[in-house]
Design brief:
The chain is built from 16 helices and 7 strands. The chain is of the alpha+beta class and 447 residues long. The strands form 2 sheets. A 5-stranded mixed β-sheet has the order 2-3-1-6-7, with helices on both faces. Strands 4-5 form a two-stranded antiparallel sheet. Strand 6, helix 16 and strand 7 form a beta-alpha-beta unit. The radius of gyration is 25 Å and the shape is elongated. The relative contact order is 0.09. The N terminus is likely disordered.
Amino acid sequence: MTASHPAVHSGIMNAVQQHRRGQARIVPISQWALWGNPRRALYYVLAVDLAAAVAIAVSIVLVPFDRSTLVPFVALLTCAVLYTEASRSIEQVRAQNAASPHVDLNSVWMFAAVVLLHPAMAAAVIATSYTYRWLRVRHHPVFRLAFTAAATMLSGQAAAALLTDFGATGFADLPRDVRTFLWVVAAGVLFLMINFGAVLGAIALTSEKPTFRKVLTSANPADYALEGATIALGVLLAWALADWPVIMILIVAVTLVLHRNVLINQLRENARIDAKTGLLNVAAWTAAVDGELERAARLVQPSGVLVIDLDHFKAINDEYGHLAGDEMLRAVANTLTNEVRTYDLVGRFGGEEFVVLLPGTSRTETVHVAERIRRRVAELVIPIPISSNGNGAGSTALFNRLSVSIGVAVYPEHGLGRGDVLHAADMAMYAAKAAGRNRVHEAPTFG
């Protein structure tokens, strides 16, 4: 896991930034973003930090140092620093264009260190990698740095303990057979599981109503795959340093190519996402819906469409300001994604209007989903900033008067194409507003 792992940022890492990117500044202890987290999350962060420190201290006392690992230790420290410099421009672009926090590729050096080095030396490589990246790529509150580094160190300690149980006195002394391969792979899996478990636990502790699905899907599945790839490269790097060090040049080159491709994929994905809410934008939603309706036609299945509009949003925006309005849009977006299935298509059509496609859903089922969304939005209590000086600074208020009007239409009952069904749902939404707002209205069936 890395200092920019999405699960970390989407949970405890959502605190207000205390550092502007590229500009470090001294902040009084009483104003640290750490204290802005819920108390249970605060205790959790401190417990992980303390556990990592204790584990390292114990390893120093109980595990003997091997002088022969000093050269790999220096090599991995150098890799962590030089690779950060080589990939700095890529990471800065990724950070600027990330719709959500992202995974970097530093686990290559970290897991190689776990496999090859004394646990305390591996911890030093991990700390160096995070700290140097913090200095050269992006500043953020130090408690983020400490927590993610501590979680990674604990994961490394567990993986190293597993290898020790296998009987390894050093990776260089292990036989190069299938049994060793499987044991090293198991150590990599354990490393990832503990690391993800630590950050997903933080998500659960900072969520008001955490669910297993919500916590587990806080990271993109592609991020799990990317972390796995970095672990695999870490194993190859450890092997290269033990048997044929010159091969590490190729591994570094492959990692840089992978890093650049990750950036390209991220930019491509961001082109599909509405930056304010994280939902699909208009172009991405309509393209995806066209594909789903073609599939529905082949399978002779219905699909429900919802057009959702926030009631009196302009007046609310004018009264409380655009920052408060943005918080409301994000709260509604989160409600929509929580109340539908993972494969349903949720998009923002601009302003205060949202759209949802429910593949394989009948008219009755679609109305049921719409009513559930309407109720959930009406129940929202949203912390919103109340500006006192015109620049967004000030106090926070709780807003609980949000409601939505929802229009319902169903393919193919209300049309054989996206445009017809969407128009029918849109007209139904306007009918809901005309009938008094905060209600669901079904499109009429003709003929």
